[in-house]
Write the structure tokens for this entry.
Amino acid sequence: MRNFLFLPFFLIFHFVSHSNILMIDSLRLAQSLNTGNQFQDNFFDGLNKKAIGNYNEAIKAFHSCLELIPENPTVLFLIGDLYLKDKSYELAEKNLNRSISLDPDNFWFKEKLYRMHVEKGDFNQAIKILKSLTYKSIDFKNELVDLYFKNGDFDLALGMIEILDTKYGYSQFRDRIKIDICKNASICKESFEKNGSRETSIKSNEASAEDFLKSGDLEKAIEFYQKAIEDSPISIKSVINLSDLYLKTEHYRIAFEFTKLQLDIFPTLIELYFINGTALYKLNKIAKSIEILEDGLDYIFEEDSIAFNYYHLLAKLYKETNNITKANSLIDKVNSLK
């Protein structure tokens, strides 16, 4: 019997690239099911055929693996990848989706499906999948901006740019996208035509709001943040701070209505989902609170400072509605962020 722990170097390298360490798990599973010899021979045959570009024969070899272990996510992923190399998109998507259904938390499976949709030019589906990958790195967040732009979702692209610039600082890549949008769409016209006095007014109102906030006069801070937003409706800083102040001053109905309106303008701003969901919880609208918080999960980045409180609140709501499985899953996330 061939021992998979003693393989030629090129196969070992092939295994450890990306998440292909799962292949070793597949071989171990085969051994535990007493199909080790035959599964392993077919598996390595498939890898060898793939390495030399004989994709049809590689697919046949991997299908032989499936006859032994029908629901093996790694093998299904490999078959999907091979169909993708042959531009057989329908079959690629079918097998990649099957692999993801069996291993829904596998980042690499999802990324491959995402890349396939980009290659096809199906940006709507690509965006849907990419939203679940942005936690991995800033690169995926930038790719989401780019896809919004390519898909003509200019509002979403600009909103995302604003969020990322605020969090990570200026990016030449994102700035080029913003310039391209504003060259070809009227959406930026107002922001480009702002005069100096208006900018001064915005900064003055924000500064006054911050001063009152520091002194503990929350109602006055609210008043000046409201003025700042009247001058500049796209001021993310003012929108977030005002939303938070409505919550802190227990104006829960206003917090809910304000953030609901702002989510139409900033649909990817995670702070608004959190405040909206918290306000609904305080208003005893548990089901609606869960619904809005679940909607926001696509936009949360696990390095965000808000992630801990966000997951904690949603876990609490799941527990109150007796959804213990989901509650425990989020509690694990909360513990990982401590």
